[in-house]
Each structure stands twice: as structure tokens, then as C-alpha cells.
Amino acid sequence: MTILVVTGTGTEIGKTVVTAAVAAAARGRRVAVLKPAQTGLAPGEPGDAAEVARLAGGHVTPVELARFPEPLAPATAARRAGMAPVRPHEVAEAAEKLATEHDLVLVEGAGGLLVRFDDEGGTLADAARLLSAPVLVVAPAGLGTLNATALTAEALRARGLECLGVVVGSMPDRPDLASRCNIEDLPVAAGAPLLGAVPAGAGTLAGADFAAGAAGWLAPELGGTWTVPSL
């Protein structure tokens, strides 16, 4: 697995932190993190790719293809800014070039799988299809996650894409009943294994502490030691 696409069932659910954990668990390998479209930040402000590098360590190369100032879907943000959008073939070309220079390329989407990159309807799913790359789905822990996860997995299957698995982006220290039950039910909803659970607040850790803990949050398929806990 040279290129892995990271998507989510929605926004603000921990995609960047999960991407950083996967990058940190790949220590010893050359890792690039590609953020096709960063929205909601001014020039010079650190974006998601830079945050992954901060958390995961110096072996990570952060790459951002485009940045749009308003916190909107990429297509909308590009249109309102009067800027050229990012298109799926550009994402695929950038990822393939990075793959010639790195052992692992992580492509982190914006929002969910089918958020539009451009006004023609291009999405992260289209980029994944061009790359023939597996897709890792990041999902929240609590009530409501099963339906969104099932819909994302169904959209992947409909496009002939591989859902590598699901990672919980922010697991509470004291999970409620729904969060505990979802540990068992998420793999059923996704039709793919649960491959980890990143603890809530992990993104606030110092880089060294985050990198030291990352392997314990991810399953062996992602380079970690995590196993599904019993209910």
C-alpha cells in the first residue's frame, strides 16, 4: 500500500488526527501527506498537512495543492474566491508523483467522501478511483455514526473502491452506551474492519507524545498494536 486515501463521514470528526496517527505509526518510512484543498485559512496559517507533520514527526512531507480562504466546501470556496478549483486528476497526479519519492502517501480529503472539489462534481472518490487506492474512513464514536458510516461505505462500493476499514476519530475517555456499542456495530455498518480508535484530545498533545502513542491507537493493518476492546 503506497497511497492511502483518508476520508470521513463528515467534517470536524478527526480526519487530520487519524492521518497523523497513521503517519506516526509509519516511522522509519518516508511519508508524504497530501491535502488537495485546504479551506478556511489565510495564507501563512498552518493547515491540516502541516498539523500532521507537527504531530507525526520530521519524517513527514506536508503538501497542499490549493488553499481557499472561506471555510466552505472546496468547490464553493474556490468559486467565491474567484480561484481555480482542484480537480480529481490533479490530486491523482500529485499523489502519484509523491509516491515515486516516498514510501507512503496519505491523501486527506475535505469533509466527506462526496464533497465537491469543482463545479463539474469531481470528488475525493474520483481521485481515489484514478489512483486505484484504498480508502480509510474516519467516523465519530457516538450516536448517529452508523448510518453515516454505512452510507460512506455504500458509496465506496458503488464506485468499485476498497474500504480498507474504519477508525474512530475521537473516542471519549468515558464512552457512553452508544459509543461502546458502536465499537461492535461500526464494522457491520461499514462491511469493513474497525482499525483503531484515537483518544479524544490526542490532537492537543506535543508531537513527541503523540508520535509515541499513535501505534497504540491503530490496528496492525495500519502499523499499530491496537485491538478491538471487549464491551
UniProtKB/TrEMBL annotation:
Record's keyword annotation contains Protease: no
Obligatory cofactor(s): Mg(2+)
Location in the cell: Cytoplasm
Binding site for ATP: 12-17, 48, 108-111, 169-170
Reactions listed under catalytic activity: (7R,8S)-7,8-diammoniononanoate + CO2 + ATP = (4R,5S)-dethiobiotin + ADP + phosphate + 3 H(+)
Broad class of enzyme this protein falls into: ligase
Record bears the keyword Nucleotide-binding: yes
Function: Catalyzes a mechanistically unusual reaction, the ATP-dependent insertion of CO2 between the N7 and N8 nitrogen atoms of 7,8-diaminopelargonic acid (DAPA, also called 7,8-diammoniononanoate) to form a ureido ring.
Family: Belongs to the dethiobiotin synthetase family.
Protein name, as recorded: ATP-dependent dethiobiotin synthetase BioD
Organism: Streptomyces cyaneofuscatus
